[in-house]
Amino acid sequence: MQIDLWLSAVIFGFSVSGILFLVSLGISIGFGLMRIVNMEQMLYYTFGAYMTYTMLTWTGNYWLGMVAAIVVAAFLGFIVETQLLRRVYGREMMFTMVVTFSVFLIGIGLVQYIWGLDPKPVPSPTQFMVPIFGVKMPIYRLLVISIALFVYILVQIFLNKTIIGKAIRAGIENPQNVQGLGINIYKIFTLTFVVASGLAGLGGALNAPLTMTGPYMGFDMLLFAFITVILGGLGSIKGTLVSALILGQVISIGGTIWSPLSFVAPFVVMFFVILIRPTGLYGVAGKAFGFE
Amino acid sequence: MSKIFKGVLGPFLLIFLLLVARFIFPHKVTFITELSIFTIYVMGNDILYGYLGLVSFGQPFYLSVGAYSAAIYLAYLGHSPLVALVAGIISGFIVGMVLGPFFIRLRGDYFALINAAICAIGLFIVEKLLIGITRGDDGLWYRSRMGVTPILDIRMPNNFFYFALLILLIILLLYKFMDHSVLGVSFRAIRVNERKMRFLGYDTFKIKWIGFSLASILSAISGALYAINFGFVNPSLGEPSRAAEVLVATLIGGAGTVYGPFFGAFGFLGIKDLVSKYIERWELFVGILTILVLFKFSKGIWGGVDFFIIEKLKTKIKSFKQKRYPI
Q1: Range with the lowest mean pLDDT among A42-51, A136-145, B84-93?
Q2: Helix B29-46 vs helix B243-253: crossing angle, to nearest 10
Q3: What is the DSSP letter of B149?
Q4: CA angle, A103 then A109 then A111, to 5°
Q5: CB-nearest partner of B121 from A98, A216, A264
Q6: Mean pLDDT score across all residues of chain B
Q7: Element (H or E) spanning A229, and its range?
């Protein structure tokens, strides 16, 4: 009985990790490449979850809702990046933080205006249970884990094997030099931003059946996503994955021990990690990241 | 003598205007009381944002520290609201002094987020961990335990209004003094170029520590006043999602000025009052307003007033004097 409980907690934790990874990837890359704090990334997550709800009520097909979530989130990201964030690059960090935070507030207002204040339930697409070591697990959680893994592999291939991916990695190291090579860094910024917001929308669509879809769902996720990014080290995709894995387990196992711990334990972990090692687990202490 | 008078005139004028407003709009007493308390809260954030150039997403934590220390004193230990206020101030001082050294050595963005983290931890402590003392989400009620204070019985809302104005006046005078002192100038110098300050031989760590503690004390005073005013506290005072309010108010008013916090609080509470009549939630409005202020009116209300009216008046007076007494 006890073993069953812990095993299901661990698998539950992995699915939380998957969603944390999808959602915080955009913040991590945005920090590394564009040097801005993407507070409004969670907006795409919220919109993704709501789009899933809408498509589900219209057509009854969850997978169509997921595609719609990705498309709408990417489109929103494109609009925000080209219309607003263009004017913010190069300004001080505090300024970008407040700007993106107010974009986030506007987005929450829009969500309230379009979908109303009360939370919307999104049913899970499959109710199948799969036995793993004698523990019955819902197949949907396993699906979330595999999709997140798939996205991680795709992103790694994209960054390491394609020329645009290499340009992005070079941009994380030094944007000026990339521009000096004749590459339009702003196009790369837009592309990265659109991909990242699409992934956040995917995270929202995947998380919609697991949580309640409400206007403020982005706020809680914002804090968790930032903890993930900071724990892993800014601009490091591997660090984001590792810290998402750690935090997923912290949330899940902490919640199994005492349910309020699932909310506060990640904050305690982040609190001590920042105080002891301000660069995060995989962060680079270099001039490019503001550490000297 | 005239120099002292000049420094004191502004705060007294502001308080006088508030008093006049109270008699012109008698049914707006609670609004003005809330405005003066909120102004103190915004001032605390203004020291961080406007003077030191640090964004904090955890100001509600410091507010709830003050509110809960005052509330716990009133609910369990004593009866005097004045002692409760002192308890709030002391708790704010202790929190600022203890957390300061850990927080201010972090870079700006980490500072903002670790404050959000401590805000979430504080909410957890108040809501779940100390549920036996704070009664969790039900809130702590103690209005009937509050005793009579000498001279002015501040349990009455009408009398509390005068008390809040008095506190605001004292804090405004001290704030104005700080603005002109070496401390205020060093705060601004750190915002502009911290490395140069260190090069010139100033201990920037200590100066930031003082600023952080001052901000924490001001927030705690505001929290204690909230607690005395309402007669109860509940954890929603310290919710991380409310961190935006004080930040937006600071921006609207004009960051880094003496009267900016007052106008920011006035603008923010006024808009909230007006908008909430028509729209249920006002996030959309607050967001658009912040973007507008950031890109178009980066000086805020008081910055604009200062720039367009007072500076022009000064140059006019100067030219007038030069005409009369040609050198």
Answers
A1: A136-145
A2: 90
A3: P
A4: 105
A5: A264
A6: 82
A7: helix A217-232
Give domain status of residue B220, yes or no: yes
Three-state DSSP class for B255?
coil
Size of interface A-B (CB pairs under 8 A): 111
DSSP string, B170-233: HHHHHHHHHHHSHHHHHHHHHHH-HHHHHHTT--HHHHHHHHHHHHHHHHHHHHHHHHHHHSEE
CA distance B292 to chain A (A): 10
Between CA B159 and CA B149 the distance in angstroms is 11
Nearest partner of B22 among B169, B165, B229, judged by Cα:
B165
User: For B81, phi and psi rounded to 5 degrees?
Assistant: -60, -30
Range ranked top by mean pLDDT from A220-229, A235-244, B205-214: B205-214
Residue B161 contacts by C-beta under 8 Å, 6 or more apart in sequence? Answer: B22, B29, B32, B33
Please list every residue in chain B whose beta carbon sits closer than 8 Å to the beta carbon of residue A226. 113, 116
Within a domain: B44: yes
Torsion region of B151: left, alpha or beta (phi above 0 gives left; psi -120 to 50 gives alpha): left
Determine contact, residues B64/B132, Cβ cutoff 8 Å.
no
> Could you tell me the residue range of the domain that residue B7 belongs to?
2-242
* Single-letter amino acid, residue A268: V
Tell me the two tokens of residue B59. Answer: 């100001």
- ipTM for this model: 0.75
Say yes or no for a CB contact (<8 Å) between B107 and A117: no
In this structure, what token pair is assigned to residue B294? 């950031």
Supply the pTM of this predicted model: 0.82
Q: Tell me the average pLDDT of chain A.
A: 82
Q: Taking CB atoms and an 8 Å limit, are B283 and A101 in contact across chains?
A: no
Question: How many separate domains does chain B show?
Answer: 1
Q: Residue A129: beta bridge partners? A: A138
Q: Quick one: average pLDDT of B123-149?
A: 78
- Chain A residues within an 8 Å CB radius of B55: 94, 97-98
Q: Residues B34, B266: contact at Cβ < 8 Å? A: no
In a domain, B173, yes or no: yes
Name every residue whose Cβ is closer than 8 Å to that of residue B159 and which is 6 or more positions away in sequence: B152, B153
Q: Is residue B214 part of a domain?
A: yes
- Residue at A265: amino acid letter: A
Q: Which residue has the higher pLDDT, A69 or A236?
A: A69
pLDDT band at B324 (very low <50, low <70, confident <90, very high): low
CA distance B38 to B162: 15
